[in-house]
Automatic annotation (TrEMBL):
Keywords: Cell membrane, Membrane, Transmembrane, Transmembrane helix. This is Energy-coupling factor transporter transmembrane protein EcfT. InterPro entries: ABC/ECF_trnsptr_transmembrane (IPR003339), ECF_transporter_component (IPR051611). It comes from the Bacteria. CDD domains: EcfT. The keyword Iron-sulfur does not apply. It holds the Pfam family CbiQ. It is a multi-pass membrane protein. The chain crosses the membrane at residues 64-89, 95-112, 133-153, 270-290.
């Protein structure tokens, strides 16, 4: 009989550990890819407004044809931004089970009625539920991709400046535009930092014999509990260090702040907004209206 130490060092154990670490390493949400492309050179306000418009339209689309139009637009943006599709799709791997969970819920617990395809005990899977599951899964995928692409093509400073300029009209009613923009930027950019911290903690715990990918689902969830405490402690420590660094540099928010690069809308921004608005309008039109019925 092999010893426990040998079992922990077996190839299958190493593969499971590698898979657990790759879960955190694969996420790309919140990261920025510095590439010289037409999308990167757009005004950050254009990218933020276009993303918000797409997210809003995605919730209003009711047909597969509309999602197909938005998918083609997103593919064109990714190609124009010179982002490797493999890199972007790799960032979706950690969210795969979330998509599967959402689709399975819709398949088995969707609306009653319709044309049954097969029965599993008291659960009846219908053709309509399968179609709705595919639709909602596709839409969730587009929601994640849209926000991910926006962070990949917008630097933290550009995002802060663009969001602050968009929120500036609300300062008249007491909305702290700069503070809100800074908080959202820090929260968004903390995602890669927290994932890196989680990867380090997971490696340290696995070196001490912790298992994150074995056993039942409740057992795996319980195995993650020891990961949360040091992760939150590290997050608070990093936030405190960031606050001290900003205070040491006399940070006073947007008060009397100057900028090296002034934001200006150009012809390329007008073209981008027009293309996104046209695609959004076509996505909302039902296919029956295209055929004139």
């Amino acid at each position: 009989m092999s010893s426990p130490s040998r079992k922990r060092g077996s190839p299958s154990s190493r593969r499971s550990r590698s898979a657990a670490v790759e879960f955190f390493r694969g996420l790309v949400l919140g990261q920025y890819v510095p590439v010289d492309s037409a999308i990167h050179r757009l005004d950050p306000r254009t990218k933020i407004l276009a993303t918000l418009l797409l997210l809003t339209v995605m919730f209003g689309v009711r047909e597969f044809a509309g999602l197909a139009i938005l998918t083609l637009l997103l593919v064109a943006v990714v190609l124009a931004a010179r982002i490797a599709p493999a890199y972007l799709l790799r960032g979706l791997r950690p969210l795969f089970w979330l998509l599967v969970f959402a689709v399975v819920l819709q398949v088995f617990f969707g609306e009653a009625g319709g044309h049954p395809m097969f029965r599993w005990g008291p659960v009846v899977v219908t053709r309509e539920n399968l179609a709705q599951a595919a639709f909602y899964g596709w839409r969730l995928l587009l929601l994640v991709l849209s926000t991910t692409v926006m962070t990949l093509v917008t630097s933290p400073m550009e995002f802060t400046d663009g969001l602050e300029r968009l929120l500036r009209p609300f300062q008249r009613v007491g909305v702290p535009a700069h503070d809100l923009a800074m908080m959202m930027t820090i929260a968004l950019r903390f995602i890669p930092t927290l994932l890196e911290e989680a990867e380090k903690i997971m490696k340290a715990q696995m070196a001490r014999g912790a298992e994150f990918t074995r056993g039942s689902l409740p057992a795996r969830a319980r195995a993650l509990i020891p990961l949360l405490v040091p992760l939150f402690v590290g997050a608070f420590r990093r936030a405190d260090a960031l606050a001290i660094a900003m205070e040491a540099r006399c940070y006073r928010g947007g008060e009397n702040r100057t900028r090296m690069h002034m934001l200006r809308f150009g012809p390329q921004d007008l073209v981008a907004v027009t293309v996104v608005a046209a695609a959004a309008a076509f996505a909302l039109i039902p296919p029956a209206a295209w055929r004139g019925h």
